[in-house]
Amino acid sequence: MQKIQAAITGVYGYLPPDVLSNADLAKMVDTTDEWITTRTGIKERRIMRNGAASDIAYGAVKGLLEKMNLDPMEIELVVLATVTPDYLFPSTANVLCDKIGMKNAWGFDLKAACSGFIYALSTASQFIETGRYKKVLVVGVDKMSSIIDYEDRATCVIFGDGAGAVLLEPNTDGYGVQDFILRSDGSGREFLVQPAGGSAMPPTIESVEKRLHYVKQEGKQVFKFAVTNMAEVSAEIMENNNLQSEDVDWLVPHQANLRIIDATAERMGLPREKVMINIEKYGNTTAGTLPLCLWDYENQLKKGDNIILSAFGGGFTWGAVYLKWAYDGNK
Fold first, then answer.
1. Of the residues 97, 156, 229, 254, which is catalytic?
2. DSSP states along 296-319
3. 96, 119, 157, 174: which has the fewest C-beta neighbours closer than 10 Å?
4. Is 254 a catalytic residue?
5. Is 299 a catalytic residue?
6. Which of 171, 229, 257, 284 is catalytic?
7. Contact yes or no for 261/255 (Cβ under 8 A)
8. Equal fold, 5-177 vs 178-324
9. Where are the domains of the chain?
10. Kind plus residue range of the DSSP H or E element containing 238
11. Nearest Cα to 83, choosing from 287, 296, 246?
């Protein structure tokens, strides 16, 4: 019996139309375009003025289904990564399925912060590999503007809104997800967290007044952990699969900080031209960064390309996925 692997057969992204530039932020907090660009590599980001995370995801999934000429009823499962769900419950995956008309699909949300997409991709691939499902959607979406304090210079310059979606289908020719390594360390929660809103600190007038429903980040600690762990796990997955730097066609790194991206590529021995980067246009869209990279670079991808996706996020969470691309993106 031939081995079934989960292959990405299509990708699509959606960005809200409103642009928030560094110049715009300089009018809101004590910062400059030079300060932001030097420290992060970000020039602008997109913001969803009206609507929820499901509306951003809707744009990506609707575009993907139309591109692949698929009826929404053909989708069997949706795994949606987000930290900005429409509601605590029901899941944003459920809301999305209703909005799109995916009546035959069941779905759930997966919360792993910036590592959300690789967690979701690894999870969804298992449903394909069992042979039980034939068409599975993996969605990475975040409306970070809904939990960002635009009076906090440390966080408001980093994040943007956006979504990307991929279609997973069975493949028996060796293409698709080959391996993954996923890690977590809950002791890092204090360094990157939304303190209020959950059962640990339910909403109160005081929690709102203290601005505890926004993202709080200890930048130096997060940077130190991210630059080490993202680079190490990327090198580890290469070693586990006997890949040399010349064997890797593309690195798809989480778009949090250009210095972290460069450090990861250096550890893997990869030149810049093999690294997908769009941080300057979108900022950190959290679970949306990796599929948006695939969407932006799709035309350059070739069937059989060895691709490594790598991410680090709050929790802490981190990991890497090794996959073989299943189609020529320019066709």
1. 254
2. HHGGG--TT-EEEEEEEETTTEEE
3. 174
4. yes
5. no
6. 284
7. yes
8. yes
9. 5-177, 178-324
10. helix 219-240
11. 287
Are 202 and 328 spatial neighbours (Cβ–Cβ below 8 Å)?
Answer: no
Q: How far apart are the first and last CA of the chain?
A: 31
- Here the tokens at position 133 are 């499902």
Name the CATH architecture for the domain at 178-324: 3-Layer(aba) Sandwich (3.40)
Measured between alpha carbons, how far is 122 from 266 in angstroms, rounded to an integer? 25
Task: List per-residue pLDDT tens for the chain, 331 residues long.
Answer: 689 999 999 999 999 999 999 999 999 999 999 999 999 999 999 999 999 999 999 999 999 999 999 999 999 999 999 999 999 999 999 999 999 999 999 999 999 999 999 999 999 999 999 999 999 999 999 999 999 999 999 999 999 999 999 999 999 999 999 999 999 999 999 999 999 999 999 999 999 999 999 999 998 999 999 999 999 999 999 999 999 999 999 999 999 999 999 999 999 999 999 999 999 999 999 999 999 999 999 999 999 999 999 999 999 999 999 999 999 998 7
- Which of helix, strand or coil describes residue 110? strand
CA nearest neighbour of 168 among 129, 123, 232, 125? 125
Catalytic residue, candidates 22, 94, 97, 114: 114
d(CA 208, CA 78): 33
DSSP for 188-231, please give it: GGGGEE--SSSSSS---HHHHHTTTTS-EE-HHHHHHHHHHHHH
- 213 carries an active-site annotation: no
Amino acid at 245: S
